[in-house]
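User: structure tokens for this one?
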Amino acid sequence: NKKKVKHLLELPKASTHLTLWKADLAEEGNFDEAIRGCTGVFHLATPMDFESKDPE
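Assistant:
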């Protein structure tokens, strides 16, 4: 969704120094290509797949 990441894409040097990837956290190896050769990674997600019989 380009609207959600517009502020990131407008950062100085973003066009040459920033790559955004979408990946499935539940699929093993899904991030391999995205992090290959990186000097830093910001991982800002967590899987939310759990069941609770008592929501409180």
